[in-house]
Amino acid sequence: MGVEKDHTKKIFGRILNERRTEQKISHVELEDRSGITRKHIYNLEKGIHEPTLSVIINLANALDIEPDQMMRMIMKRLND
What we know:
The chain is mainly alpha-helical and 80 residues long. It is built from five helices and no strands. The two termini are 15 Å apart.
């Protein structure tokens, strides 16, 4: 069974927003840490854009979590 693309984007966006706000990091600071524009981060958080693997890795590193941990968080929510 496949994974619905829109659902995955929304889950990733929620996780990204939760991790960023838990750490009290602004969009500007996350942009500085990750090299990803604020607009793209905002669109990822809203589930508008789908992240590439390199974006997931850069954001995870900027949020001080391992990329595989972020992927496990996504998979867990997909399976809930």
